[in-house]
Design goal:
The chain is an alpha/beta fold and 325 residues long. It is built from 12 helices and 11 strands. The protein has a 7-stranded mixed β-sheet, with helices on both faces. Strands 9-8-10-11 form a 4-stranded parallel β-sheet, sandwiched between helices.
Amino acid sequence: MIYVMAPYATVSGGPELLQQLCYVLNKNNIDSKICYYSSWTIREQGENSKKRYAIYNNPSAMKVVDAPDNIVVIPETATYLLKKFHKAKKVLWWLSVDFFYRKKRWQDNITTAFGLLDGNVFDKNLYHLCQCKYAQDFLILKGINKDRTFFLSDYLNDEFIQNAKLETQIVKENIVIYNPKKGFEYTEQLINSAPDIKWVPIQGMTPNQVRELMQKSKLYIDFGNHPGKDRMPREAAISGCCIVTGRRGAAANEVDVPIPAKYKIDEKSDGSVSKSIELIRYVLENYEEIKSDFDGYRQIIRGEEKQFEKDAVNSFNHFIHGAGK
């Protein structure tokens, strides 16, 4: 049995990816169950996530049988759970790198008060799944053997992709959209430098409203940290937006954010704000001519679901039949 550990009552990209893994494994006759946790406690699924993830119809477990024939999948933000299991094979799924360190700092701060001890993420007996190349490179630098790491990314909800196809005739407007939760200090400099441009933050919106905004906008910008292979740039690209990013985290490589290099700007370089504004104006003024620059990215996005299924099945067949805990 595969137990996929998922945070209780949390609705976001990471928890949905855990649901997708459980769904795909069961679809391919690899018995799997979701197991919801809140700190050390295993719980029933929270109401706010039950409706969101009902489409996957995943079976759940209120107990993990810690036995050698079983496998426990733990997201990198809950590494303390590694210490909970001693006999089952353990797989740590790196949905990000940056969030791991952010969570670990929080855990370290309360260790003395609550005795919440972190598991050894670099234990030689662990298997590692990597949502992005950024995570793979990180593990290699930490000395993890390649034969213990497996690439398992993610994919956009098919409903999002199909809806994007249906709305391809929407007239694009000179709108630049951005996520105010990421890199806003830099984005604010851009906004102040070009107040004539229409900047629209993606916040306080339903999923449908986000999709509608993306479909009528010409450009999505994404500066700040890229802790993993983020969904929002892909959602924007599949909705017809051009993409401009920084070069931090996962955006630094050509696998996690595979867009032409000229659309990536180093925020820390001299004159980067003026260079960014120049590039943004260029995209808005020449959208029809350059939108095809992102067709390769869009093609990759459309194929991610099939690739995810293939990688998931291959990885877990290895975990099931391979050696180690």
